[in-house]
Amino acid sequence: MQVPPLSKFGEVLKFYFQRRLLVIFVFGIASGYPWVLIGSAMSAWLNESGISRSAIGYFGVVFAMYSINFLWSPLVDRIKIPVLSNALGHRRGWILFCQLGIAASCLLLSQADLVNGSLHTAGLIALSIALFSATQDIAIDGYRIDSIAENEAEVQSAGAGMATSGWWTGYAGLGAIPFFLSDSDAWNWSSIYVLLAVIVLAIALLGLFAREPKTDRAIQQQEAEQKFRRDVASHPGAAAILPFAAITMMTLLGWAILGFAGLTSVTYKTWIIWALAQTALFILIVRTLIGLHRNSHGVHASHQVQLTIKTSHKIIAWLIVTLIEPLADFFKRNGTRFALSILLFVLLFKLGEAFLGRMSIVFYQEIGFTNSQIGTYSKLLNWGVTIAFSLIGSYITMRAGILKGLFIGGTAMALSNLFFAAIALTGPSVPMLVAAVIIDGFTAAWSTVAFVGLISLLANRAFTASQYALMASIATMGRTVIGSTSGALVDWLGGNWALFFLLTTLMVIPGLLFLYSIRKPIQAIEQKHRAKSNTGA
């Protein structure tokens, strides 16, 4: 579908109101809303219960689930949820399953008593919400990319804009509700969380009107599996090593991320051993894959050996295609150097925003804003601003390109943090808060749209959810795991909020410098996809 010129506003409006983009918007709401449950609302509840800033910051380690969801994303790509997936389709089945889990966990959380020592229990329940939500994101991102054909690369920016608008509708629009209610004597946080659970179910009901996108992903995966069955049969000993090495490597990686988040105890000696083990496993997998392909190529080329495919070969081939091939394909298609560069860039790009976002509610409350003011400006106003600039940013990104969008959004994102530093110096000024929220909403929306558009283009359609989850989870690592130390940083600075926000501004600079260093390969990818769009291939 061609992107209409801005002069034809009616056509632009019709373009964004096509059914698949509206569905992406609704699923964006479903993706953003759980961050209210374990993010802003939880921070306010903890703060009003007398929990320390450091504890509130560390409570955010439950978001580590978003940083490691790529570890189980291959399973979401291949396994169907019984009954639900048969009735609704692969992606929608997973989405509804996760939404039901979020609602049930939210109801359990409403029964927690934070004042009288239920903080540990509340943390475990919040962790379950994060787990269901992070899994839901895998399915939702896969659904969004699958809904847009490969020859509609420019439309990915529109999809990213609608997803970002939806996310902020869930996080900021619906996220304002608990702040307004908490200022009323008729509501306490337990009853508010019951209402929040009902809202989850209402969002799930809207999702039932979506249509499952038609793709040839299953065919591509089956073809890859058939190939690996022959490879395994020709070299069974080496092939059997691969799935076990992959499972061990991913387990160690997940443990390391959780350890970095403070959920497990680690030492420097343990980190060294872990790094050596991960390096050895990586080399083993790469060398085994290369040897497997070489051996099987020689056997298949000669046509002299009749291969017998056993059940064990089928199982190993399924595990290889499910666990290894999605990540191996990402490195093979992009080259190891550029693939690693992309992963480092997505980690660095929103690091400053991560620190700012985690402490923003605590900052507003400590500086003197009421919960109603927080709900009005930080949530509702930010919601409207973000939706507007998500759509405007996506349209301009479709026209100007993703690279320019990243530079514009990233630069503005760094400067916007200075407005929060100004508020810290001037006190609770509503006009300053309005200015800060508008500028922050503009920068966050534009940079997110361009960012999501880029990693959507990089995902192979055969392993959509797995490869997107790999990049998105690493980006989320900066926003959640590393950002969980933000409270400790404020305490270390002696509560100097102005200096804290100045540091978050400086954190954006390394990501922008790194983006400049990899601009040429990104431009090449954009040009390749634009050529496909122009030819309709």
How would you describe this structure to a colleague?
- It is globular, with a radius of gyration of 24 Å.
- α8 packs antiparallel against α12 (about 190-205).
- It has one domain (about 10-215, about 340-535): Growth Hormone, Chain: A.
- It has about 525 residues and is an all-alpha fold.
- The chain is about 80% helix and about 0% strand.
- The longest helix has about 35 residues, at about 270-300.
- It has helices at about 10-15, 20-30, 35-50, 55-60, 65, 75-80, 85-90, 90-110, 120-145, 155-175, 175-180, 190-205, 215-235, 235-260, 270-300, 310-335, 335-350, 350-365, 370-400, 400-425, 430-460, 465-480, 485-490, 495-515, 520-535.
Architecture per CATH nomenclature, i.e. the level-2 architecture: Up-down Bundle
Give start-end ranges of low-pLDDT stretches: 298-304
| Helix content bin | over 70%
Q: Tell me about the biggest sheet?
A: none
> What structural category characterises the helix and strand content?
mainly alpha
- Mean pLDDT reading: 79
Name of the level-1 CATH class = Mainly Alpha
* Number of contiguous helices: 25
Number of domains: 1
Order of helices and strands: HHHHHHHHHHHHHHHHHHHHHHHHH
Task: Classify the beta-strand content into a percent band.
Answer: under 5%
